[in-house]
């Protein structure tokens, strides 16, 4: 089996497992909850089949929904960020993305940080908008989005630093 396929299968299983077994039970101050499973969507290889990628993102979200009993909101948020990911990649990485040569371990930290922040905030905004689904509670939606995003971004950056394979 191809090592990239094996890596992505393991990443899917580990991130989904960590999310449903550990992170879903963190509910700090009532509205801070990290969602690091979106790292799978962020780190998925750029050159792969887009249809497969959107399907795998849906499957990831659905897996989290099944274990969280959340009625499809994770699947909707995952498909949304999977769909807009090429635009965010182009914005964050510029010409490197144009030539499809992004290696997440070797890009500048600022580009990686911008990408993680934008993807996380979009995911969380969609997720909490669907969870709360009440226009009169827009402040709560933004509060949950902001604080959960900060916590998720910190964890995602720590994980990418810890598991990066720098070759210099």
Describe the structure.
This protein has a single domain (3-162), classed as Orthogonal Bundle (Arp2/3 complex 21 kDa subunit ARPC3). The chain is built from 7 helices and no strands. α1 packs parallel to α3. The two termini are 27 Å apart. The protein is mainly α. Helices cover 70% and strands 0% of the residues. It has helices at 3-21, 39-43, 50-68, 73-93, 95-98, 109-132, 138-162.
Structural class: mainly alpha
Shape: globular
Report the span from N to C terminus. 27 Å
Order of helices and strands: HHHHHHH
Strand content: under 5%
Percent helix range: 55-70%
* Average pLDDT over all residues: 88
Count of helical regions: 7
Summarize the structure.
By secondary structure, this protein is mainly alpha-helical. 70% of the residues lie in helices and 0% in strands.
